[in-house]
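ERR on first pass: missing label on line 2. Operator R.T. fixed the label and resubmitted. Corrected input:
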Amino acid sequence: MRLGVCYYPEHWSSDMWSDDAARMKALGIERVRIGEFAWSRIEPEPGVYQWAWLDQAIDVLGSAGLKVVMCTPTATPPKWLIDQHPDILAVGADGRPRAFGSRRHYDFSSPSYFEASRRICEAVARRYGSHPAVAFWQTDNEYGCHHTVVSYSPAAAKRFRGWLAKRYGTIDALNNAWGTVFWSMEYRSFDEIDPPVATVTEAHPSHRLDYRRFASDELVRFNRMQTDILREHSPGRPVAHNFMQLFTEFDHYKVAADLDIAAWDSYPLGALEEQWFAPDIKARYLRTGHPDFASFNHDVYRGMSKQPFWVMEQQPGPVNWAQWNPAPLPGMVRLWSWEAFAHGAGCVSYFRWRQAPFAQEQMHAGLNTPDNRLDLGGEEAARVAEEIRAVVSADGEPKVRAKVALVYDYEAKWLFEIHPQAADFHYPRFAFEYYSALRSLGLDVDVIPADASFDGYSMIVVPPLPVVPDDFGARLGASGAQVVFGPRTGSKTRDLRIPANLPPGALADVLPLRVWRVDSMRPNVTVPVTSDSAALKGESRHWRDLLEVPANMDVLARFDDGHPAFVRHGALHYCASLFDDALTQRIFARVAAAAHLDAAPLADTIRVSQRGALKYVFNYGDTAYTIDNVRADAFVIGSSSVEPQGVAVYRAA
Amino acid sequence: MRLGVCYYPEHWSSDMWSDDAARMKALGIERVRIGEFAWSRIEPEPGVYQWAWLDQAIDVLGSAGLKVVMCTPTATPPKWLIDQHPDILAVGADGRPRAFGSRRHYDFSSPSYFEASRRICEAVARRYGSHPAVAFWQTDNEYGCHHTVVSYSPAAAKRFRGWLAKRYGTIDALNNAWGTVFWSMEYRSFDEIDPPVATVTEAHPSHRLDYRRFASDELVRFNRMQTDILREHSPGRPVAHNFMQLFTEFDHYKVAADLDIAAWDSYPLGALEEQWFAPDIKARYLRTGHPDFASFNHDVYRGMSKQPFWVMEQQPGPVNWAQWNPAPLPGMVRLWSWEAFAHGAGCVSYFRWRQAPFAQEQMHAGLNTPDNRLDLGGEEAARVAEEIRAVVSADGEPKVRAKVALVYDYEAKWLFEIHPQAADFHYPRFAFEYYSALRSLGLDVDVIPADASFDGYSMIVVPPLPVVPDDFGARLGASGAQVVFGPRTGSKTRDLRIPANLPPGALADVLPLRVWRVDSMRPNVTVPVTSDSAALKGESRHWRDLLEVPANMDVLARFDDGHPAFVRHGALHYCASLFDDALTQRIFARVAAAAHLDAAPLADTIRVSQRGALKYVFNYGDTAYTIDNVRADAFVIGSSSVEPQGVAVYRAA
Amino acid sequence: MRLGVCYYPEHWSSDMWSDDAARMKALGIERVRIGEFAWSRIEPEPGVYQWAWLDQAIDVLGSAGLKVVMCTPTATPPKWLIDQHPDILAVGADGRPRAFGSRRHYDFSSPSYFEASRRICEAVARRYGSHPAVAFWQTDNEYGCHHTVVSYSPAAAKRFRGWLAKRYGTIDALNNAWGTVFWSMEYRSFDEIDPPVATVTEAHPSHRLDYRRFASDELVRFNRMQTDILREHSPGRPVAHNFMQLFTEFDHYKVAADLDIAAWDSYPLGALEEQWFAPDIKARYLRTGHPDFASFNHDVYRGMSKQPFWVMEQQPGPVNWAQWNPAPLPGMVRLWSWEAFAHGAGCVSYFRWRQAPFAQEQMHAGLNTPDNRLDLGGEEAARVAEEIRAVVSADGEPKVRAKVALVYDYEAKWLFEIHPQAADFHYPRFAFEYYSALRSLGLDVDVIPADASFDGYSMIVVPPLPVVPDDFGARLGASGAQVVFGPRTGSKTRDLRIPANLPPGALADVLPLRVWRVDSMRPNVTVPVTSDSAALKGESRHWRDLLEVPANMDVLARFDDGHPAFVRHGALHYCASLFDDALTQRIFARVAAAAHLDAAPLADTIRVSQRGALKYVFNYGDTAYTIDNVRADAFVIGSSSVEPQGVAVYRAA
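pass 2 clean. output:
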């Protein structure tokens, strides 16, 4: 459990660096990330490198006892490079190149940029690969930010054709897989295939899904080029990338497979404002963020990180990039920091040391104000640094082990976006709502991919997962866990077709359903769910699978027109719809009970986590919360009365 | 009264064809539409035709006793043709060609495509023009779908100039007609005129209206090329096109004039979701469709069809293309089928035989599920097939004859779209609301163009018709019918100018009004309507014509600021506004009474129709409806108690 | 106090001109504006001028005793000119040239157009510069209409680089000022800088603000070219331009500095519909306009006009260009006219003499209907003409002198648009709301720029003004006035950076605050404001500055979390938020009382103004209003009972 900070020596006079480093250290900060946007200072003219300032900055930080997280600067190629190679610019769906003047103005498929990136990465890696202060690396910055994964450039089109040829072998195989006979879309060769854009009406969904897979793979290849260089020139230093939950246009699992540390950038207030939440929820959690949003992402990235995951950028105050940017309540920067550690973080690094008084992000708070006074977030970070010692001395830094797993998938998002059948069928939202229901029962959750091992889990929840691995049902059946599936699970083949046996496709081997019809519902429509059990009554929203079920399957709840709504087959449960939050919670509580898990509803602003022997309690609400039945001397942080925005940590009985 | 189905032999293994044909026949299906998207299979390489599979498919269908509706495949030119002639692609208002990869990716003005279409039509027509199983033809598919009528290509610009030269003769005539002196928009020659697009603010409305007329005429010309070829090579076989109400960017009357059968594609649930209806209406009729929507279109296409109109595609279950795609209630497929016949349909053809498991429309239901089991829609179709025999034996297949006519116009829609003066002045909506008011009174309605004969009608309703034919007033006056005009009737000349005598322009000869001012009202504003007659009180919405009326005109209702709201001059009635639904219904009831028609309000989910000696009753609601005063032995289908989603047919007294 | 009218002789047969002129004169009209869209008639072919018709038109008007306002016709270059020089067309943010076919289709930076404009202006100015009937000039027409200030053309890009070079001298100075080191956006030369458009995410805000300044300066230069020509060829005739409040993409002060008369075009109903007002406000003032909207603009343009300002175009009835276009209530055309005079107008000129029956604006009312009968607006104009005599004879035409000033700025609008930090931070709205609060207290207001003299004002209100002149605080302090600042005042430097001492930057010298954090709030969030004074309780909306205040500063109200909401330091008051309307009114009443001004809340539909010795009362409501304590013989117009839409003018005691 360490604290870090993001720092931009190039933004400040070198006169300030020593003082900055000393104050960081005094505050309890141990890691400093630098350099991710510094290309124009490292190489101000083509081929002319200026290392002196950066050498000095790293030396100053290292001398202060800080460890540097060095970045490759490829997120912001300088203007001279763009002017040399205009093909670096990605092309939007509107057919226009995306211009220089902000960031991420590059195309993952551009050969010029691939080479230029290789060159600058090698230069930086060679220079600092064995510098004693450089202890970690970060590749690029926030892949996918500003919708920069998919490009419609000629370079992308060309590489897509090669990708298709590799995937399908022959054009006949592609035509068969996609079903291009529909609407005379048949191709005679891979060379005839264009990116699926600017069509009269929707382009072919299999074509679109493959284009999204291709774009994701291009990013993976780009990142791997960088990790290979870094490992060659800086052996032994962990390599990280800072993901963001919001940027799901590529497969985070595949990128993480090439990293040592999956880090993410946590902006609870900006995320609340920009995501799917309803206006009343946005107002309610305006200054705290949603109680489950950061947690969800901690669990996502913990799952894919080889070493303990990091929060590479932690919101320290108001930000600048959401439509509205409220100030967090006092205490929230501390709460968010502890929440990350409770979920297993190895490091929480604040963005940024000092607010910059210029450019696009001048309204983004730092730990210090632009006039270099310690801001509220800085004070809270200092408190966290102190508290870390108490916690680590009480229990060390054990791994988080959850009994519940939630299966989370990136292709599912692309697929439902491309082929929704219901305009508001938003995969991350539904996955998050399942996660939130589990958390509202006090359960710790691992978030895992569909091809993960299921060993050790008592309960596995599968939000709508259209494409399931072939052995998914068999492995789930063998796991011994209680399993809950959301609707539309198994509804598509890998080629984005309807399975020959209808949904749930391959799952039907273990869960002998047949979804003979689907029913998509606009937002102002719900269907009542009825049951003999009062706990299973509620409302159905968004979607219904109409099920044909065998006589030996338990129909636990039905829609009011008689179709099965919630069924059980041994340990496997299937939700034929997305239910209201309360019904989802009761269903999960029922399944958790079957799994012999201790699950009970929490107040909706209280969340709990367990890491090792310690239990963490977080209060997102506006009234104090009392923890019952814990002895006063068990508390490592706080006490049994948890103030609003407060944190308590105690030894679990 | 026949049933048909849309079938895609190219989507399935030829092994399945015989069984499919046999099962169609057994179900009661008699016509099978094929081939409209099969170009890439008919001509997989340039100039290389592969007839064998299609020969076989047609033979299989014919051998089973089915009659084939053969289509020209021009809605989906294959990729190789686009690559040969990129100018085939239409150009959007954004200046970009609309790419290959879905359908309707062609420009009606492209000379390359006109020639390529002629070639493939001739090839198909020669091959099957005299095949014994081929009994009908369909040209292309759903002209206008996906906003594909208007193109801004160089080819269209060039042909537009020729169209203008033909219409106006001299550039001075055009300048005078349009009034280009306004804003210095004068042209010195036709060559100076571009398509009206990408202008700084709105382009000249007369220019825009002529461009829309031109685009519609281009489509008419394209279709006529096809009907000429089909009539040459397949004499005696009726030629149809499958229109869709939603696609009103061209003049359906002009296309229908070149056809034998005006068919349309009826998707009551998709249409409800995608059209102007308010969210509460969309929720209320979620699984039935609006009670008047399909009927309105039956009456539209009956009016323009030389032979009995067809429903070429009938929704058989949930579809895929609306924002939300609910499942119809059980019984609705049957109800919709009977409603079509009640309105005079010659054939109801379901789309499609079997749901395809691939490509864009894989979520579109068929009569059979993708795993080839008979779906609910298939069961209901079988029931309809049986019931047809009873109905035909009771009364044959008489023509529908209505006493009430509603005047419906396509240019009116374009004109109000181009030049609305009130952002939500939506012509099809207002025409539909007038139609719906008539239907809610139990009246059968013919939908006719403004230049139709008015003989035999007792009552004629004219929704807002901006441009009236010169002799419109005289013919209406001579008809002897009671007439109701909506506001803005006669408000424009053919060149989209204000008439010299102000609105209602030429109509003032018979209806001596002067609309001296207009008043457009935002959606949250209404104006009360007052009258000595309680039945004529209500609310005015959207729009007001402020009328100067002669002393001898009856002012039957006034707005609360004293301006006339509803006036009568002999048999001619003028509504100076769009009234609330209930007031519109009461006004129409009053006029119907003056026309000696039997009109009485129905429950809002009950609709009735008469065809020949039989009366049809449809229940769109959720409670049973009782038909009074009909003897039990008069019923041909059903009984005096009509269940929800039920149909009854009885001999009218 | 004169009446005028806009007239288009080229739209009508020359047979009608004499009658038109005679009827204008008889109605009481004295000025006639002509020619602003007549280029295609003046120069129908390149270099071929046709003066005869225009000579005749001017002669007819002059002979009738009317004075002509002659316009330069540069708002509508003809098609032949565009075809000769396609680079005249401005380029949109989408990269496409904006096509011919409406108006304002030109780029202020196009060298071709600058020269063509110079040529036509000289031709017109030479021809009519000394014509006895031509008494005034208007340059172009409604600069900025349809978002035509900013262009992204190559010509604009080239001139922008020159503009930057002039502003910054060296590229290093620019890099430092903007802070381009952020995100590696550093430039090596001015030639590398492109317009800030089409970037992946937001372009650099300083870059964007400079581009807006540049675009405004280009317009100023274009207008100055015209005023120079007019003054050379028509010395002694005042030169005007007709601004519109809605078009704030350029600095109206800078253009006005080159004019003699700042005129504006007043469309109270269209503006209400198209601006920020909430739907219920739009419905409430549907047929009157907002009681403060026209007044605000009268005061804006009075402040920048060397001679008495004009209303060059006054709405005479319904217009055509808003989404909905309601008819004004009878009496409103008169009320609006008198309101303009009450605020100091020298002339109110109606748009237009007669409604045109063709082209884009055919639904725009005139003083006469298209069939040439006097319309309601014409009748009201005649009444105003008569009343003017009584008013002028009672008091002459004195200047308006206000004790209250409101500081209004154009760059502020651009800056907050570019860099809002809160999506709905709409500068003109907030400035208007401050103005409205002052007016609701019966106060007359001067609207002035930030660099104006503050002499003679008792109270100065500063809506959120991000960039303050260096001497702003000192001058305000020296003025002796009571001052109220809105939030975010002084929050940015001229280069769009955060001031080194944090906001309020330079103002802190006189107002020693420190805004250490800001808090932006979504529309469904408010924060209570508490105070010991009941009058200072209310709600905070949109935004909060969190203030650090010295001990000697009065904190008059606080937010409910304790932060200061409203503070006073001597005569300087600072609002840390935007308050609800009622609280703003009470704050301004309190400050007005401190300034010894007579301020009391009016009914919300009553407004009063003083010009010289006369007091004007306007009733926007729907019930009569009684003026107390004024003797009957003091009334010059009306009486103490002011009917709805009524006007009263009386000698102030």
